[in-house]
Specification:
12 helices, twelve-stranded antiparallel sheet, about 375 residues, three-stranded antiparallel sheet, 15 strands, Immunoglobulin-like, alpha+beta, about 35% helix
Length: about 375
């Protein structure tokens, strides 16, 4: 009798094996599996905004049960406590408005990584599409895999009715299905799959206002949507990462004959979104180019009164938005896929070994001198 047959015919050994394997798989998945959209921003400097307008920022580290934002320098709170990071747990992410990966905030190295990420995401090659198709296929047939495990364990339970572990095979495979779901994802949606790697229009709810963002759909999960290369208009406090302003670079507002003259000290276009006078608030949408001045006209009942201006900054960013606040509404522009892009040949130059091969080929190629004359 082989060792495997001895193991299968021993109910106690099978019970211990099931418990050990389930525990190890569960431990690995709970420790390592992260949301597909969030893990793409891991290692980058990001700005996190919640629904109440609170802003947190730092280098992002993504875990299966939450996020940690690492500060570049230590901070002290009002009580003098030293702080080096900000932790958001999974239950707190329900209050998330958006996560921004703003291009201006990144180091030179991360800006190059981001550019490479966008290049590979936009119009993916046939090989990347095939790998994604395999992942989706595995996700689709997850239930069939679980049913097969149920059948096998059910057969063993019938042969060993006294075995308490095997008699609860349905509970074991149900918990295993939940772990498997976390590993491969269960948010497969054909209507979104056809737009992966293409420009789309995303509708995002901010308070009671619906905003549209235009970018490349990279990924989605059951909780989030990720879009790249978005020219987004973020609130000023999100861009400068300070709800109270930004000392040394204050926006100057001066009164003029018929309104207000706004001076923009930023390197990005500033948008005056609205004017508030007392309880009345109206939208104006006046653009102030970088380091320039623009006029904001006031109405008759606002002249001479105290008014507040709401600002936004137009910048280049990538977004991760909760699906409870966002929906893909329209397909964007479509470009014909070139053959080299389809086959992934345009990505070869980004591979280190290919760069070394090209450089060595160039060094070995003889050059003809223009001074050589035929005899």
């Amino acid at each position: 009798m082989s060792l495997l047959e001895s193991f299968l015919n021993n109910p106690i050994a099978v019970s211990i094996g099931v418990i050990v394997v389930s525990s190890l798989v569960g431990f690995y998945i709970n420790a390592r599996v992260r949301d597909r959209c969030l893990r793409d921003l891991d290692g980058y400097l990001v700005t996190v905004e919640d629904k109440a307008g609170k802003v947190m920022w730092g280098k992002l580290e993504v875990f299966s049960a939450g996020l940690e934002l690492l500060y570049s320098t230590e901070k002290k709170d009002t009580e003098g406590h030293v702080e080096n990071s900000y932790i958001l747990y999974d239950t707190e992410l329900a209050n998330l408005q958006a996560i921004y990966r703003i291009h201006d905030d990144q180091s030179t190295r991360n800006q190059r990584k981001r550019a490479t990420d966008i290049k590979r995401t936009y119009q993916p090659s046939i090989f990347r599409r095939a790998l994604r198709g395999l992942r989706n296929l595995f996700s689709t047939f997850k239930d069939a895999i679980v049913q097969s495990l149920n059948t096998l364990l059910g057969q063993r339970a019938a042969q060993s009715p006294q075995n308490a572990v095997l008699s609860k095979h349905k509970e074991l495979t149900t918990s295993g299905a939940q772990l498997l779901s976390g590993a491969v994802g269960n948010a497969y949606e054909p209507i979104l799959e056809r737009h992966i790697g293409q420009y789309i229009v995303l509708e995002m709810l901010r308070g009671e206002k619906v905003e549209e963002e235009y970018g490349i759909l990279k990924e989605y999960s059951d909780k989030y949507i990720e879009i790249l290369n978005v020219r987004v208009e973020v609130p000023l406090y999100v861009y400068v990462k300070d709800p109270q302003g930004f000392p040394g670079r204050q926006i100057k507002v001066e009164k003029s004959a018929q309104g207000l003259r706004v001076s923009n000290p930023l390197d990005r276009t500033l948008l005056v979104e609205s004017v508030q006078c007392g309880e009345n608030k109206r939208e104006v949408e006046v653009f102030v180019p970088a380091h320039e001045i623009a006029e904001v006209a006031l109405e008759e009942d606002e002249i001479g009164q105290e008014v507040k201006l709401a600002y936004a900054v137009r910048c280049l960013s990538d977004l991760v938005v909760p699906r409870s606040l966002a929906v893909v509404r329209h397909a964007g522009k479509r470009e014909k896929l070139a053959l080299d892009v389809l086959l992934g040949l345009d990505e070869l130059s980004d591979m280190p070994w290919m760069k070394r091969l090209i450089d060595s080929t160039r060094r070995e190629t003889p050059t003809l001198s223009t001074d050589v004359r035929p005899r």
